[in-house]
Design brief:
single chain; about 200 residues; alpha+beta; Jelly Rolls; 6-stranded antiparallel beta sheet; 4-stranded antiparallel beta sheet; 2 helices; 12 strands; globular; binds N-(carboxycarbonyl)-S-(3-nitrobenzyl)-L-cysteine; binds fe (iii) ion
Length: about 200
């Protein structure tokens, strides 16, 4: 189901590895300007994943709901710019999966520490659900939960490793998905952490 070129989703093992040496300092600068923070769900629960954004639009959640905004609500400044390298990586991965001309305007940065998880959900806050989502995994390995069209569908478990890129699109774009609690560990470059970059066309 995750074979490239099928018009759906594609798991590209190690696709981001050639970018990592330049990507990590760029990410450091972004989270210095727009620090990772644990946002609250509309129901008032603190998310275990810490988040920030770069690009024209950033995804946030608070008591008023989920949405994309142009400014970081912590600083009231625009989100840091999307590094050119990240645009290049996202475009190349999308193309490898069969999507030409993917230009994301939003990158959500998800930081998972051991024990952090993401409950099953759908991504549907974006305007153009025909555009794919490119997700880049860095640091500790995670077990990705790839569900179905209904929340009750039993999810498949997929290991996502440092450098893996997944392009989610076509019929998979609205599948329920999540991440199992991160296992403890220490990654040589990122320490006790998994970072997931989620690149989207949100506006
Ligand atoms: C993660 N993040 O590993 C994932 C990667 C999020 C989120 O889910 O919303 O921040 S993106 C995974 C994704 C997106 C769209 C569709 C599907 C998966 N899918 O069909 O399974 O932190
Ligand atoms: Fe998601």
């Amino acid at each position: 189901p995750l074979a490239p070129g099928a018009g759906g989703s594609a798991l590209l093992r190690g696709f981001a590895l050639p970018y990592v040496a330049q990507l990590l300092p760029a990410l450091d600068a972004i989270v210095q300007a727009a620090p990772l923070r644990h946002m609250a769900t509309p129901g008032g629960l603190r998310m275990s994943v810490a988040m920030s954004n770069c690009g024209q639009l950033g995804w946030i959640t608070d008591a008023r709901g989920y949405r994309y905004v142009r400014q970081d609500p912590v600083s009231s400044l625009p989100w840091p710019a999307m590094p050119a390298l990240l645009l290049e990586l996202a475009g190349a991965a999308a193309l490898a999966a069969g999507y030409a001309g993917f230009v994301p305007d939003a990158c959500l940065i998800n930081s998972y520490r051991p024990g952090a998880r993401m409950a099953l959900h759908q991504d549907k806050d974006e305007c153009d659900l025909g555009a794919p989502i490119v997700s880049v995994s860095l640091g500790l390995p995670a077990t990705f939960l790839f569900g179905g069209a209904q929340r009750s569908d039993k999810p498949a478990r997929i290991a996502l490793l440092h450098g893996d890129v997944v392009v989610w699109g076509g019929p998979d774009r609205l599948r329920f998905h999540g991440v199992a609690p991160l296992a403890a560990g220490e990654h040589a470059l990122l320490g006790a952490q998994r970072i997931n970059l989620t690149l989207r066309k949100a506006g």
